[in-house]
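Before the break, one more example. Copy the sequence into your notebook; we will annotate it together after we see the structure.
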Amino acid sequence: MRAPVQAIFLLALLILLAPVSGASGEDAIDWDRYSEEGTVTVLTTDEDGSTRETKVWLVVVEGQGYIRTGNTRWGGNIERNPEIVLRIGETELPLRVEFATDESERDAVKTALRAKYGFSDWIFSPFRGSNPKIMRLIPREAQ
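Here is what the structure looks like once it is written out:
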């Protein structure tokens, strides 16, 4: 009878002492594995509660995933509720968006988007305006 009690105690102790997962732990996303993806789908929630699916470009800068938009409905959805789902193939990632405001970070993302998407990025730039929303993608568990 004593051995099972000790086993349960040790198991409970291991659970209590296990590191809490977060962005730097097992819940971190390896964005580099998605760096070659052409388009991904962002799922946001419209004002009426319905789900909006929008295809967007994804870029990875220094191991961090980013998306961008101009003055769009799905961009407005993110301003109201920064929790999104990013669908990459069959994988769905629950994320939270943080808007990039630091100019050096924004410039790095713009440069990476131009390098990855080239002429297409240049053609669509007038539709995004001069100050597009650049969004850093963070795992929800990291919040």
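The chain has one domain: 23-142. The helical segments are 2-17, 73-80, 103-128. Try to locate both features in your own notes.
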